[in-house]
Amino acid sequence: MSIRSVFMALAALLVVTPAALRAQEEDIDFAKARREFVAGQPRVAANSLLMASLGVRTQVGRCRDETVGSDLLNSESSLEKLATDLRAGTVKDVKTLDATFTKIDRALARHHLLLVKAVLQRPRADNIPTAARDLDRLAYHFERSFTLSGKKLDADQAAAIETALKLSKAIETSNAIPATANADVIAIEKVLLAVDATPAP
């Protein structure tokens, strides 16, 4: 069975999965795939990457920005290609995985940031809770883009993550957008853009 066939079968399963279970779209589990590769299980890691590509696919469907949407589609393709390379045994160094994962995590962080900004422009009772989750996901992917490969966050990056998590909690608790939200998101975006201006390793 080809990688594409496996992917299509998994995509079909995703469609029939109840929405409550699909809320776990963050099965973009690069840490699991990385552990499996390091443990000498490249084929198992390839399967984990195919599952991760489904998580990226769910985010493509939510994206409303052409540039970031293109980055996410490329990320999905990169995961499929990496899975194929793992199955073929052509990936010899974990740094190959780390470079791909870093790039994808940063694209996902930007994606979640844009979704939050869209809610801040037009907050409604039905979309405010999604802003809290997207802030949480933004912090998660941005932090993981450094820490998964063992890099350290600088003070600005750590502060941006902390701000995103605090804002997420404030929105979740009150189901309202705090007065500081726009300023907080601008500060977070500044840090993300600074990192994006620096090429990923």
What are the key terms here?
mainly alpha; single chain; elongated; disordered N terminus
How would you describe what is shown here?
By secondary structure, the protein is mainly alpha-helical. It is 77% helix and 0% strand. The chain contains nine helices and no strands. The protein has helices at residues 3-16, 19-22, 30-38, 42-62, 66-88, 94-121, 128-147, 155-174, 181-196. Helix 6 (94-121) packs antiparallel against helix 9 (181-196). The chain is elongated, with a radius of gyration of 17 Å.
Helical content class: over 70%
Outline: elongated
Q: What is the multimeric organization of the chains shown?
A: single chain
N to C succession of SSEs: HHHHHHHHH
How many strands in all? Answer: 0
Q: What structural class is derived from the secondary structure elements? A: mainly alpha
Biggest β-sheet strands, sense, barrel: none
Compute the separation of the termini in Å: 34 Å
Mean pLDDT across all amino acids: 88
How much of the sequence is in beta strands?
A: under 5%
Low-confidence regions: 3-25
Q: Radius of gyration in whole Å, from Cα? A: 17 Å
The number of distinct helices, counting runs of at least 4 residues, comes to: 9
